[in-house]
Amino acid sequence: MADDDEREIELTSLVERNDLTGIRLWLAEHQPYEIADELSRMDVHLALVPFRLLDKDRELEVFEELDPHHQHQILLGLRDSAFRALLEEMDPDDRARLIGEAPAKIATRALAGLSPAERKMTAALLGYPEGAVGRYMTPETVILHRDLTVGRALEVVRAKGADAETVYTLPVVDDGRRLAGTVQLSDLVVSDDSELIKDIVDVLVPRVRATEPAEDAARLMQQANLVALPVVDSEERFVGLLTFDDALELIEAADTEDIARQSGASPVSGHYVAAGVVRLARARSVWLLLLIVAATLTVNVMQVYEATLEQVTALALFVPMLTGTGGNVGSQSATAIVRALAVGEVRLRDLPKVAWKESRVGVLLGLMLASVALVVGTALVGPLIAAVVAVSVIAICTWAAVIGSTMPILARRVGVDPAVVSAPLVSTLVDATGLLIYFSIARLVLGI
Amino acid sequence: MADDDEREIELTSLVERNDLTGIRLWLAEHQPYEIADELSRMDVHLALVPFRLLDKDRELEVFEELDPHHQHQILLGLRDSAFRALLEEMDPDDRARLIGEAPAKIATRALAGLSPAERKMTAALLGYPEGAVGRYMTPETVILHRDLTVGRALEVVRAKGADAETVYTLPVVDDGRRLAGTVQLSDLVVSDDSELIKDIVDVLVPRVRATEPAEDAARLMQQANLVALPVVDSEERFVGLLTFDDALELIEAADTEDIARQSGASPVSGHYVAAGVVRLARARSVWLLLLIVAATLTVNVMQVYEATLEQVTALALFVPMLTGTGGNVGSQSATAIVRALAVGEVRLRDLPKVAWKESRVGVLLGLMLASVALVVGTALVGPLIAAVVAVSVIAICTWAAVIGSTMPILARRVGVDPAVVSAPLVSTLVDATGLLIYFSIARLVLGI
């Protein structure tokens, strides 16, 4: 932490003082990812100053570390020649993602400036749907034929390895370019030169279709401990490799997105510190609007029971406690299930199992929390209303756990991202229904 | 999904029918990670049946894929010879984590059964604090001296590579075993045999101390695109490598933990489907108890204003809507900042910047939501109370955004995990304070 802070103060203040010698020195002393991290925190007009001072090689490395939002901003600040040179040198998968997410005017200019070979490669990747593995894989690999010897294969790696993004996992194909499996470079290195690739190829290695979701592929790599995952087309032909660094990034991005959704916000691309107030507010506004409209239901429920409230004002005292507790229990269940779905622990057919389990969890939690409510209620308003509150707590907790746990599974079943079943959504639903439960119990017990 | 479901139905039913031939066939057709995934979903007494049918090599691979909770359960079901053989063969880092998290009786039995060499290696890793890189790194690497030639280095890799967990990143050391940097196996393969290691070593590669938090190291690997990260002791001597597969696992586990905390629950280790009702309830109960006790504050606030409520019952109608909205806005801010802290986008010194930004986001959201409240309120109870509600919405949203965003940063400043500033905690705090705001505005405007 301390190091980070010093680093930041330094570069920002150097840029603000326009101390070009100081900036050059700072840049020489830091790694591309550190430079990218600092640039992401600065306003773009400031970030362009150090960016332009980078030498060509590092410029590319730093640029590839930036997120798409910052990449677009930087590109807009570059002259045409620099713009073209940068894009031409990028890895095809990084470039495809940049262009795929860019505003139309940047995308057109970017594609037009590319050499025919690079343009073809980029267009192929852009042909895959957004979020698909095809957008994230690298087509630049060293492919081995299954009939090669290990010695010959190593020569191929030596000759072509420099142009590939990775040579640790080597796809092995048959005559029709169909994927037979993969060999690891480490296996080549420790094998005898005369051995045949087809005798050491791992044919059981997992593979994915280029059209499958990239997040699922990344989680598969984590489960299967793969440094690279081979990607095939619909006819089992090899088309590229998803590498571990993209997998790490995919998992972090997917988790960031799920976490934002879980709080009822759209994910904001780019660095928090660099995000504008209006952009942050917009990302959070949609759900808040929907939820406050949904919350008018609670006003209606309260209105229905206004007469009851006028008779027994004490009932009103416990409304925030009950809605709060119900919301908390429901959010916990929803959060647990959304995560379990994301990492593949819970599947669609687990719905009845999950509902039954969570209902019992809800009863247990309800019993525990009801005892607190009973003590507090008795002390403040007497045993009768306290009993009403306690019974309501049990009922609301059970109901909240069931609703919170089943809604994400139902969402996935109808093809919606389970993460939209956010904590606020569950709380709001449980608020209105919880009040109905509370007042019904109150009227029953108090006989009004 | 469909595939997963078929797979599961098959193995579970094979085990339940005790169809040993069928189970053997199923095991032969699946990868270790798939087998581990299925075992994780089953009760341990059932999971032991297929586990015992695995041949020795795959038994180890499957076992290493299980989470510690399941590993402990499986170990308890094994005979002593099988127990020892399994532990002896494990990777030292996986074994250290298993023992570190095991109940005392398993840990003692496990350490006692190891060969002296393996016991020494495990003890060294267990010497590092829980959660530190030292617990997750592998000490089994191929170390190169900086004075070697590339040709000689490749011979070393060939000779010792089979025993190492990874040979893709090769640590380079000087005479005192101090880390000079790393070379990539891919660089060795494409370099001339006569070149010297010291001329191609990457000296700028990031390195971490073995005592640093493993999660930070994993995120550094993601940022710097490293397949393995060298780990050093306090004297800069090389002690091990953190590999990408452990980094992927660390990031996923850290995110799972943060997500659970964010909903006010302790993380539950192991598979959701296999977790018992009592264990789930216990993980969620601590915060719920604290929060319902804190929520008695809302009862107190309501009681203070009971006379006001008796005079104007209509005020009570909007209580759930106001507490709900405040909770939602506060949770969104807290979630955004906890995540930004976790991935390193926000730092301690950003506190004033964040508070100022979030207060403006809160005002914007408040204005938007107040307009809805004004319309709904006017329709249901007339313009005067509607105005009170609308003004309260603006004040509560601003307050909630500031509280939600600053509390996680303050938590980290005092050394507490920011993720404990959960959505439920923020909601509960905002409930009580929001009610104070609401009733104060009401008494001011209505003159009561």
Give me a quick take on this structure.
2 copies of one chain form a homodimer. Chain A has 448 residues and is mainly α. The first copy, chain A, contains 22 helices and 6 strands.
Q: What this model shows, in words?
A:
- Two copies of one chain form a homodimer.
- The first copy, chain A, is mainly α.
- The first copy, chain A, folds into three domains: 2-131, MgtE N-terminal domain-like (MgtE N-terminal fold, Alpha Horseshoe); 144-251, Roll (CBS-domain), CATH 3.10.580; 295-446, Tetracycline Repressor, domain 2 (Orthogonal Bundle).
- Chain A is 68% helix and 6% strand.
- Chain A is built from 22 helices and six strands.
- In chain A, the strands form two sheets. The first copy, chain A, has a three-stranded mixed beta sheet with strand order 1-2-3.
- In chain A, helix 8 (92-101) runs antiparallel to helix 9, helix 14 crosses helix 15 (244-262) and helix 19 (319-342) packs across helix 22.
- The termini of chain A are far apart.
- Residues 1-6 of chain A have low confidence and may be disordered.
- At the A-B interface, helix 1, helix 3, helix 11, helix 12 and helix 14 of A face helix 1, helix 3, helix 12, helix 13 and helix 15 of B.
